[in-house]
Amino acid sequence: MAKILVVDDELNIIKTLSSILQDEDHVVYSSRNGEGALEFLRMNDVDLAILDVWLPDVDGIDLLERIKSLYPETAIIMISGHGSIDIAVKSTKLGAYDFIQKPLAMERIITSVNNALEHMRLRKENIKLRKEFHLDDEMIGNSPKIEEIREIIETAAKTNARVFITGDSGTGKELVARAIYHRSRRLDRPFVKVNCAAIPNELIESELFGHEKGAFTGAINRRMGKFEIANKGTMFLDEVCDMSASAQAKVLRVLQENQFERVGGNETISVDVRVIAATNVDVKKAVEEGTFREDLFYRLNVIPIHMPALSERMVDFPLLVDYFLMRFSEEHGIGLKQIDEGGMKELTRHTWPGNVRELKNVIERLSIMVPGETIGREDVRKHLEAYDYEDLMTKDISSLKKAREEFEKDLIIKVLRKNDKNVTVTSKELGIERTNLHRKIKQYNINIDKL
User: Fold this and answer.
1) What does the pLDDT look like over 59-99, one tens digit per residue?
2) 0.70 cut: is pTM over it?
3) 20 to 30 A Cα–Cα from 155, which one of 53, 317, 372, 392?
4) Is 95 left (phi over 0), alpha (psi -120 to 50) or beta?
5) DSSP letter string over 250-267?
6) What is the CATH number of the domain that holds 35?
């Protein structure tokens, strides 16, 4: 749900847009002149403004420039019944997200509004990330391997070269990707993360490249893909070796030609995206087994970075422990704890299969659960056993995936029944888009009529 301001001197346009946008669950305000719009913006936060080029008191282009200057976090879509290519170009140069000709098509309005809001959401998220950029985004440690990685990050960040990060789960691959982004020339552009392992194979292409209306069941509107959203910015393809073969082929084409088509579409879209990829699998083995394209690997592996396991950098262990103790003391508003010699010996005996991520979780647990100021050997032993990360790591991944899918299917059925099979209401309650819910209904073979 977003707050949207419609500025147009035609009452029927205001009524039409308000009806369309309210049906999409947005809160809509309106003004029939530019000064009224500026006055409203002075008193209220607005996510998106839809401005007519021709207004009775001010020029719409001038109003666009003033709003972008005063309220840069507000997305703007321009509309006009007498627009020209020159006006459209000028609007986009001044910061308008889109320019739409009247008469207004409902589908075009909904698509443009959704894409503009998603673009601004990512922009705000990136600004927030930059404001929160502190030690958590830095490499903690001074071991030779970490120092070497720091040097590679500094060198890679100054370029647009692709980076391929390898290493076990929990070693900090995403941290490295974000460190490169924060030091790059693309810092003011989106950082878009895609976890390839978390997206079903039948949905990965739509997620990456977007889709046209009617491309498949549930594709109600055109949707931008992650590559389009990341244009001029950075894309982080996490667990890239889990990507389907067809998606790999399309990603290879984007890397070669900087072009792609949406699923179900013929329009060729050009993008400029820096790609950083990561995986926790043996890439060479995946290539040999034919599950990962060799040509794609060479395209991605321009600057390789391998993240060492925690067991390979134990010289950094005390620094990491002290850092996490201090961090969780601040985060949870509790006294700063200390780990005595016995506790440290117990920690260093552990094999840490989950690497730095596991250490972080264990230190947070100890900081919260140990009542005194000092954490001893028995405290560590007790909470390591409770955590039992090694048992978690050795579970059958396919069984976990199957259990997750069964839970998801049961939850969707339960909420659909609760909402009298209303997909729109159900999607809102589950917190996912209607198109995604339609896909999952198809994926799990849920027969709505029989619920």
Assistant:
1) 899 999 989 888 888 999 999 987 678 888 889 888 899 99
2) no
3) 317
4) left
5) HHHHHHHHSEEE-BT---
6) 3.40.50.2300
- Residue 119 CA to residue 97 CA, distance in Å, equals 9
Within 13 Å, how many C-alpha atoms sit on residue 259's CB side?
5
Task: Give CA–CA dist 82/88, Å, rounded.
Answer: 11
Tokens of 181: 């982004």
Distances (CA, A) of 37 to 3, 5, 57, 63: 14, 8, 11, 9
Rounded to 5 degrees, φ, ψ at 50 are -110, 115
Number of H helices, E strands in the chain: 20, 14
- CA angle at 215 for the pair 211 and 219, rounded to the nearest 5°: 75
**Same domain? 151 vs 212:** yes
Residue reference for tokens 């440690």: 141
How many domains is the chain partitioned into structurally? 4
Angle CA 181–182–186, to nearest 5: 60
Helix axes 317-332, 341-349, angle to 10 degrees: 110
Cα 410 from Cα 146, distance rounded (Å): 45
Judge whether 121 lies within some domain. Answer: no
In a domain, 125, yes or no: no
**Rounded to whole angstroms, how far apart are CA atoms 186 and 411?**
40
- Kindly report, residue by residue over 209-264, the tens digit of the pLDDT: 999 888 887 777 778 899 998 999 999 999 999 998 999 999 999 999 999 999 99
pLDDT cut 70: percent of the chain above it: 93
Beta-carbon contacts of 148 under 8 Å, excluding residues fewer than 6 positions away, are none
Asked, for residue 17, whether it belongs to a domain, the answer is: yes
Out of 81, 115, 149, pick the residue that ends a domain: 115
Separation of alpha carbons 113 and 119, rounded Å: 10
Decide if 123 is inside a domain: no
Task: State the alpha helices, DSSP H only, in 219-339.
Answer: 226-229, 245-257, 283-289, 294-300, 317-332
Q: Are residues 49 and 18 in the same domain?
A: yes
Question: Residue 301 is part of which domain span?
Answer: 133-306
Radius of gyration of the chain (CA): 25
